[in-house]
Amino acid sequence: MFSRTLLATHRLFTTTAKQPTIKELVESAISENPVTVFSKTTCPFCTATKSLFSNKFPNVPVKVLELDLREDGPAIQAYLAQKTGQQTVPNVFVIHVHRHIFHSTVSLGNDSSQAAYQSGRLLNMLKE
């Protein structure tokens, strides 16, 4: 009898935090940060993109999710591909809206981000 009461009490006071779905995780990262970068630590184009933001926009908060360091990284990348049509990283969201600065290949992604910075377009997007 005591063990049943203890078990019932344990259930009453023990809560398991619901893990967010991949969609919830991605969407909250995007909506809660001025800039969100989905990246991989081994990608030189991702490194260049992260350096661009940290060096040229040091006062802009940037949320970086390193997909290769996360167990759910492949699922996040699959969701991003479904959401944006872009299958590669870096995949960057600026002020809650995915901007097509980054094209669908890694080599063009970083080039496009650098070009957007050079043209002033990136600064304008951060002001929106």
Q: What does this entry show, briefly?
A:
The protein is an alpha+beta fold and 128 residues long. It is built from six helices and four strands.
Regarding quaternary structure, what we see is single chain
CATH superfamily: Glutaredoxin
- Radius of gyration using CA atoms only: 19 Å
Low-pLDDT segments? 101-108
Biggest β-sheet strands, sense, barrel:
4 strands, mixed
**Assigned CATH class:** Alpha Beta
Mean pLDDT: 79
Query: Which fold name is given in CATH as the topology?
Result: Glutaredoxin
The percentage helix is: 40-55%
Task: Outline the structure in words.
By secondary structure, the protein is α+β, with helices and mostly antiparallel strands. It has a single domain (19-127), classed as Glutaredoxin (3-Layer(aba) Sandwich). 53% of the residues lie in helices and 12% in strands. It has six helices and four strands. It has helices at residues 2-13, 22-31, 44-56, 73-84, 106-119, 121-127; strands at residues 35-39, 62-66, 91-94, 97-98. The chain has a four-stranded mixed beta sheet with strand order 2-1-3-4, with helices on both faces. Strand 3 and strand 4 form a beta hairpin. Helix 3 runs parallel beside helix 5. The protein is globular and about 45 Å long. It starts with a helix and ends with a helix. The model is unreliable at 101-108 (pLDDT under 50). Pfam families: Glutaredoxin. It comes from Lentinula raphanica. Keywords: Disulfide bond, Redox-active center. This is Glutaredoxin. Residues 35-94 form the Glutaredoxin domain.
